[in-house]
Amino acid sequence: MAQSYLKSGHEQYRKVQAQTGSRADLVLMLYQGAIRFMNRALAKLDAEDIEGTHNALIRAQQILNELKATLNHAVGGEISSGLDGVYDYCVQRLIDANVSKEADPVLEVKQLIQQIAGAWEEALQQAKDTRSDLSG
Questions:
Q1: 60: CB partners within 8 A, 6+ apart
Q2: What's the pLDDT tens digit per position in 71-87?
Q3: pLDDT at 19 over 80
Q4: How far apart are CA 75 and CA 23, in angstroms?
Q5: Is the pTM of this model over 0.90?
């Protein structure tokens, strides 16, 4: 019962965070969500839970497609174009994992997304530090 309340509270926190966060923070949350669903898919693969694996991989794909949809090619130029290709590749690899029920493609995509998320998080922190330096 207490775990249910904790889970519900965590979900509410994430909803409020998503509704009040900056666009950059929301992108980071999407990366974190994709990683979370890939971790869930890996756990479900280990448990031989076919439906759970499928559902988690579909959710990760949906998040990657959302990230792709948020790309601004007019502003982002080469970076947006590169990310567009990476997201397409990642979605295809997750589809491959869902068909084959193998962990390797999920691990590959997870590593790529973790690297991108880490770079994004670092850029966010630098931007916050710069704003702090300018205002302080």
A1: 34, 37, 38, 41, 94, 109
A2: 999 999 999 999 999 99
A3: no
A4: 15
A5: no
